[in-house]
Structures are given as structure tokens and as C-alpha cells.
Write a structure and sequence with these properties.
By secondary structure, this protein is an alpha+beta fold. Helices cover 15% and strands 30% of the residues. Residues 1-18 and 45-51 have low confidence and may be disordered. The structure holds (2R,3S,4R,5S)-2-(hydroxymethyl)piperidine-3,4,5-triol.
Length: 460
């Protein structure tokens, strides 16, 4: 008998150390089902961003998807054209790009609206409240035009605040020699803070030019472009990467700076050619697992290079991939949606606008596939010139998965400090973007669309 009890068949209670009655099992199953149901609800919400919006905000979201036409008539030649514009293409008919680049164009106000139409968040009437007007002068909370060109935005969780960093270009535009690109001496990296992505407070110059030491990377006669900042959760430091160059763009390097605070001051650490390669237009991207990457135009801007940063974000590792080889792309802006990576790039035409392209990949390191021109609306010229602008950053719209703000610069090579910001809604939508069995293993990418709007606001 004893032997029998020793080798008694194990019951559920002997495994879990408690007595499991039938009701306990039933309730556990119900609990599991509830958890599964809740999980699927959350996943569903993640998939359809619109679900997180209230009815009113859903209407605003729908408005973003409206294709807005905009026709610009080129006026017949009249009066004086600037000597620079006249020289550019004397025999060809005037194109809209020529008009855009002509400081004396009769339709200049379309590309560079005057001060009278400036967006002034502290004094805007209610009908314009929270609205973006791409291309208009945008004032900070002190009433000065925002100086954050070629910039990017960091959302700081600790302060629950957005920080916009960019080139502070509030100086005279000049050329070092004939045919050299227009330039402004380095002043530094400007930083602006905001809670609503519309009202921006000037936090000052967080990384300043070097005035005296001519051998310093940031000596004012050099070039500092496209600064981007990310936060390192492990070290608690804010790390800035930027393109540093000489006036002729032959140094082609990245610079790195660090700070304990998002508002700086940032300490400049060093510059280098990453992986030993030329690096001009660049960006950095922090993935959801905390790994950060440097993306830069290399080999005479003919290809992009992508490589992970070290864990402290202060250097590159020795891993690097060459992507979009031979495609001559610059101004990379990388973002992620549902485990797919997307990138918007521009062509290489100096300060003149050109056509944007969207690219997609299943891994940051590639392979990257080119999807095509993401611009929707406006008119053909708008779409072929990225709305007369060049991308710099793509910011996820809070609470609306699949929706982003595409941030671009409408450069004004005649007066770079007066370059404008073109912010537009970017939507990733359409087909599921994971590989399907019947498409021979090739991924089906979602459509990436940047919608033109003369006036729009975030749906939150
Ligand atoms: C295009 C780049 O994207 C800008 O950042 C700047 O370097 C200009 N070229 C200079 O011509």
C-alpha cells in the first residue's frame, strides 16, 4: 500500500503546489482569454492610428490625406532679372526653378512670403492657431525668425519637451570665390524647445563657433551642417553628431559633441572621416532597441553609408554597409514604422531644390529599396522639387502610428538666414509591409506619402 501511495500518479496540485479545482482552471482560462483579447485590442490600436483619435481629430487626420492642388503661373518676363539669374540659363525658357532662384522674381512672394504673413504663435488669431504654413517665416516666442536649419528634433522624455536643433544661420551670405557655394560663417547650433511642436522658445546657441583658433573644426570660416541630437539611456548624455567641413567641402567629416542637458552647452569632442570614408550630408537614427546608426553620403555623394554607433554613441563601430550605390542621394532622413525602416533622400544639386525619393528596408543596414517620389499634391513642379525644399528629418506624430512630420528646408541661397521651413504630414499607409509568400519572398512596401498643404495642423 505504501508503495502505491509513493508512486501515486501526479496531480495538477502536486505540480503547482496548490489545489486546482475545476472552477480555478475555468477562471484561469477566462483570465488568459481576457489577456489575449486585451493584447489584440492594443495591437489593433497600434495598427490603425486613427483609432486613437477622437472624432474631431479624426476629421483633422482625414484632412491631411486630401490631395491639394496648387498651380503657380510663371509671369511673362518683365523688368529686371538679377544678373546671377540671367547668366544661369540665358537661352532656355525660364523654368519655375529659375524663378525660384531669382532674387528679383515677380513671384518670389510665393516661395518666400514676406514678414507680413509670418507665423507668430504668441500673437496668432484663433483661426490660425496651431497651423503650419509651409514656407512662411516662423517666429519664436521672442518674435524672431527661428534659426534651426538642416535640423532635427529630439523628444526628451524627462522634460516631456521637444527640442529642435539646427544650423543658426543669422549672418550675411557670401561666396568665398566665384562658383563656390553660398555660405554663412558658422555661428553655431541653435536649440528651441516646445511642448506643442508649434510654439518654440529659443534656448540659445548650444554649440558655438570658434572665433579665434583657425585650426579648430568649428572655426567660423568652416562649415557646420545638419546637426542631430539623440539621448543615450545608458550614459545619460545627449550626443550631437554633425557634418563638419571646410569652406570648399573637402574635409568631408563628422563632428561629435556631448552634453548633460538637452539645452547644452555641448562640448565638442572631435571630428573624423567615419570608417575612413568621406562624409557630407548625414543623420543619426536611434532604433527602438537603443542601437544608434550614422547615415552619411560618401564617395563624392554617389552612395550612402550606414553603420551602428558604439554603445556610448560617441563613435562608429567597424561595421558599415554601402547602400543606394551609384544613386547620388543626400539629405538622408530615416524613420521606422512597424518594423520597417524608411528613408527620404534628396538628389545632389547644392542649395537648389530637387526630387525627393522614399526608400524602405527590413533592416537598417539594408538592403534598401527605392520606392519612388513620395510627394503628393501641389503641382508637378512642386512634386519634382520636394515643394521647393530639401528634407532634413522625419518626426513621428505622437499617438498617431504611421503618421509623421516631414521636416524640410526651403533654402534661400541669396540669403541663407532667410531659408524657410516646410513641414508637411508624411503618412505610411496601404498594404501590409511584410513579405508575403506569393510575392516570391520580396517585401511589399507600404506607400510613403508626403501631402502638400498650404495650411495644416496636427490631428491632436
Ligand atoms: C546640399 C546639402 O544638403 C546642404 O546641407 C548643403 O551642404 C548644400 N548642399 C551646400 O551647397
Amino acid at each position: 500500500m505504501r508503495i502505491r501511495s509513493k508512486y501515486k500518479r501526479p496531480t495538477i496540485s502536486s505540480y503547482v503546489g496548490m489545489k486546482c479545482t475545476m472552477p480555478t482552471i475555468v477562471w484561469s482560462l477566462v483570465g488568459c482569454l481576457l489577456v489575449l483579447h486585451l493584447y489584440s485590442l492594443v495591437r489593433q490600436k497600434e495598427r490603425t492610428g486613427e483609432m486613437q483619435l477622437s472624432l474631431g481629430n479624426r476629421t483633422l487626420f482625414q484632412e491631411l490625406l486630401v490631395v491639394e492642388e496648387d498651380n503657380i503661373q510663371i509671369p511673362p518676363p518683365r523688368g529686371k532679372r538679377s544678373p546671377r539669374a540671367a547668366k544661369r540659363r540665358p537661352k532656355k525658357p525660364i523654368s519655375l526653378i529659375d524663378e525660384f532662384l531669382d532674387e528679383n522674381s515677380q513671384i518670389r512672394h510665393i516661395f518666400f512670403p514676406g514678414e507680413r504673413t509670418a507665423i507668430d504663435p504668441l500673437n496668432e488669431d484663433t483661426s490660425n492657431k496651431s497651423y503650419y504654413f509651409p514656407g512662411r517665416i516662423w517666429l519664436d516666442t521672442e518674435g524672431n525668425p527661428i534659426q534651426a536649419h538642416g535640423g532635427g528634433i529630439l523628444f526628451d522624455k524627462k522634460a516631456s519637451t521637444y527640442y529642435w536643433y539646427g544650423e543658426y544661420k543669422d549672418g550675411p551670405t557670401y561666396q568665398v570665390q566665384k562658383n563656390a557655394p553660398a555660405r554663412v560663417d558658422i555661428i553655431g547650433v541653435g536649440c528651441y524647445s516646445s511642448k506643442d511642436l508649434w510654439t518654440w522658445k529659443n534656448e540659445g546657441i548650444v554649440l558655438a563657433a570658434e572665433e579665434k583658433n583657425e585650426t579648430h573644426d568649428l572655426h567660423k570660416t568652416n562649415v557646420l551642417e545638419r546637426p542631430k541630437v539623440i539621448y543615450n539611456d545608458k550614459t545619460g548624455k545627449y550626443v550631437m553628431w554633425m557634418h563638419v567641413d571646410d569652406a570648399n567641402y573637402t574635409k568631408a567629416s563628422v563632428g561629435v559633441a556631448i552634453s548633460d542637458y538637452p539645452t547644452g552647452p555641448f562640448d565638442y569632442l572631435y571630428s573624423k572621416r567615419p570608417h575612413g570614408f568621406e562624409s557630407r550630408d548625414m543623420t543619426i537614427f536611434k532604433d527602438s532597441d537603443g542601437t544608434a546608426y550614422l547615415v552619411y553620403s560618401s564617395e563624392d555623394n554617389s552612395e550612402l553609408h550606414i553603420g551602428p554607433l558604439t554603445r556610448d554613441y560617441l563613435d562608429v563601430t567597424n561595421v558599415v554597409k554601402r547602400v543606394l550605390v551609384g544613386e547620388h542621394r543626400e539629405a538622408p532622413a530615416l524613420f521606422k514604422h512597424r518594423n520597417t525602416y524608411y528613408m527620404i533622400t534628396s538628389g545632389c544639386t547644392g542649395w537648389a531644390p530637387n526630387e525627393a525619393l522614399a526608400h524602405a528596408a527590413e533592416s537598417v543596414l539594408g538592403p534598401w529599396e527605392t520606392l519612388g517620389n513620395p510627394c503628393v499634391g501641389g503641382n508637378k513642379m512642386y512634386r519634382l522639387t520636394t515643394f521647393f525644399a530639401q528634407g532634413t528629418f522625419v518626426l513621428p506624430l505622437p499617438g498617431v502610428p504611421g503618421s509623421f512630420i516631414f521636416m524640410a528646408d526651403r533654402w534661400n541661397p541669396a540669403d541663407l538666414r532667410d531659408s524657410r521651413y516646410v513641414w508637411l504630414p508624411l503618412i505610411v499607409g496601404g498594404k501590409a509591409d511584410w513579405p508575403l509568400e506569393y510575392n516570391f519572398g520580396f517585401p511589399l512596401w507600404s506607400r510613403v506619402s508626403i501631402y502638400w498643404h498650404k495650411k495644416w495642423r496636427c490631428p491632436f
